[in-house]
Amino acid sequence: MRIKLVDLDNRLSVKYNKQDGIYNWGDDNAYPQLVKSLINSSVTAKQCVDLNSKYIYGKGFEFVQNITNKNSLIINKRGLNINQLLRIVSREFSEQNNIFLHVNYNALYEVSSVDLLTSEDVRIGKSDSTGYSGKFVVYDNWDKSKSKKIEKKDFILIDKFNPSPAIIEAQVEAAGGWNKYKGQLLHITADFNELYSLSDVDSVLYDADSEYQASVFKNSGLRKGFFGAKLFVTKPFTDDMERRDFEKTINDLKGSENSSGVLLLEANGQSDVLSEHMLIQNIDSNIDDKQFESSEQSSAKNIRKAFGVPSILIEDGDNSIFGQSGELLKEAKKTHWENKEEERNIITDTFQLLFSNFHTPINPFNNWKITPIIQMTQVTNE
């Protein structure tokens, strides 16, 4: 895993890249990759993204529950059904606060397929004199992890979403026909005022990295440090063969799975005292968990706050499901479900926009409500 943290003022610098014909996403044009790497390496950030995506997805669309033929819900060539698309979109939005939906049409200008393209692969293309960017550039090596050179010949240009039949027809004609037409891309952001939205992890990038680095440091100490090591002090060996035989015996005693180290020291001279012929001592670990406890707790708290996740939903506790704590847990779940309403509305509005023109009636009653992850109490006036 490669994680590169850039200066705070530059990490989401959005500048036009004339050479590649795109708006860079971050100072090194690899902001989405940085976000994904840090989230996947931070246990708290990953928990928060997992939880938030679940509270957006809920139990899927309500209308799906009444459909017995699930094959009628398939919405792209990958064979994903509409709930599966909702699930991966919820995850992407929770992680990046951006989603890119690839839309294809048939000759009747109806939507024939919808799929998600990852934020790592998509960049906004050149804008005209009015500031309108009509193209997206799709490429799988913006971070140069696959090769050090950006290969423009591998760029895929896709038109910006516009469902107008006249616009689609013009795009098809410009592409050279339906067989060459790449469809359209719909870009949805959490902040509609920005070209690219900041991820929720943005304000705590260093906290997420601190969790990762603390884990690496402790692991390195356990694997390469003094933890569990032994110090052997022996009388002088008579020759190299005797020394090698002794070392072999020690290694055999350790066993193949024992990773603790052995430090062997030979005394300067002989002694008649038996205890001085061989001395075995433990070498204490140089890792003090208390040194990490405070900083790790602080980092975890900051990350939870950045993602808006109540600590009770991801922190383990012996009393979390009993008594008063059980009621607190229920209330926290309800509150978090309500707090994710804006994100759910953004996504359901997007699905309604796209699938209201789907080539087969996938949701005849136009009900795009998501089934809550918890049972919500209905308030009635009697």
Helix content: 25-40%
Structural class of the secondary structure composition?
alpha+beta
What is the average of the pLDDT values?
A: 85
- The succession of helices and strands, N to C, reads EEHHHEEEEEHEHEHEEHHH
Strand order of the largest sheet: 4-3-8-7-6-5
Calculate Rg over CA atoms.
29 Å
Largest sheet: 6 strands, mixed
Number of helices: 9
Q: Residue ranges: pLDDT <50 for 5 or more in a row?
A: 318-323
- Bulk shape: extended
Number of strands: 11
**Measured distance between first and last alpha carbons:** 60 Å
Number of domains: 2
Strand content: 5-15%
Question: What's the gist of this structure?
Answer:
Helices cover 36% and strands 14% of the residues.
Topology, element by element:
Blueprint: E1 16-17, E2 22-23, H1 31-41, H2 43-57, H3 82-96, E3 98-105, E4 111-117, E5 122-124, E6 135-138, E7 156-160, H4 165-175, E8 184-189, H5 205-224, E9 229-234, H6 240-254, E10 262-266, E11 278-283, H7 289-307, H8 323-339, H9 341-355
Parallel strand pairs: 7-8, 9-10
Antiparallel strand pairs: 1-2, 3-4, 3-8, 5-6, 6-7, 9-11
Helix pairs in contact: 1-2, 1-5, 2-3, 2-7, 5-7
